[in-house]
Structure formats: C-alpha cells, structure tokens
Design a protein that fits this description.
With 148 residues, the protein is mainly β. The protein has a single domain, classed as Porin (Beta Barrel), CATH 2.40.160. It is built from one helix and eight strands, in the order αββββββββ. A hairpin with a 5-residue loop joins strand 3 and strand 4.
C-alpha cells in the first residue's frame, strides 16, 4: 500500500513539473550496489526548484542474480557554490526499495543520503554520485550517468 501511494504521489509531482519544461531535464544512470555487488541501470529527472536546490526523482533497477530488485527515490540536493563548471552537491530524500525472489517479497522505506558532482554546463552533463540508503536493509551505492 505504501509503495502504491508513493508511486501515485511521484507521478503527480512529475506531472506538475510539465509547466516548467525549461527547468526539467531527463537522464540515465548506472552503477553498483556495493553491499550486494550488483549493478544497476535507471533513469532520473532533474528539476531546479530554486537557484541551488534541485528535485531529482529517480528509478533504479538492480540486476540481481536471483529475483528482482528496484528502487524509487525522491531526492533533493543542494548545489554547492562553484566558480568552475564542476558542481558538487549534497542531498537526501525518501527511498523505497523492493526485492522479490520466488514467493518472498520485501519493501523497505528509508532515508537516502547522497553527495556527488556534475561536470560541465552543456547539453549532456555527466555526473558521479555516492548514495547511502538508510533503512532496514541499508545499502551503499556508487553511480554515475548523464543528464540531457
């Protein structure tokens, strides 16, 4: 039930961003969940809320050996002041992870703590990120991607 409500709220938030297309960008991401040694692929939106505040909802599908795992995240980060094209950020948000294998299902809601850096201010912006998912099943995640 929590997962369905979160998905509905996330969709409503994403729909509300439609009026600000110039400030909303799409991206792809990938990396590894270090505690399990499993890679992930995903997608994200980047929406400037204010000058240095960014709303960054994202989805990550983890390529586990058995079963399936994915996360849905509603992150916000603050861009630290910078005079160069490299921007460092700190942030956090709500994370929901779901794991299932055969008849076993587990959904965990927790806190995301993250830091990262983006490189450049052009049409395609690469980034790297470190995320700690704090919850019943805590995770350390290294990732990167490109925002278009």
């Amino acid at each position: 039930m929590k997962l369905k409500m979160f998905i509905i709220l996330l969709v409503l938030m994403l729909l509300s961003l439609g009026s600000a297309n110039a400030q909303t960008r799409f991206g792809v991401r990938g990396g590894v969940y270090l505690d399990q040694d499993d890679p992930f692929v995903g997608a994200h939106l980047v929406h400037k809320i204010q000058r240095a505040w960014v709303f960054n909802p994202n989805f990550e599908y983890v390529l586990v050996d058995r079963g399936s795992m994915f996360t849905i995240n509603a992150d916000i980060h603050y861009d630290l002041p910078s005079r160069s094209s490299t921007i460092f950020w700190l942030g956090g948000g709500l994370g929901i992870s779901h794991f299932s294998v055969q008849d076993f299902n587990n959904t965990d809601t927790g806190l995301n703590l993250l830091m990262g850096a983006s490189f450049g201010r052009r049409a395609a912006i690469p980034f790297v990120q470190v995320k700690v998912m704090v919850g019943d099943e805590s995770q350390l995640v290294l990732g990167g991607g490109i925002t278009f």
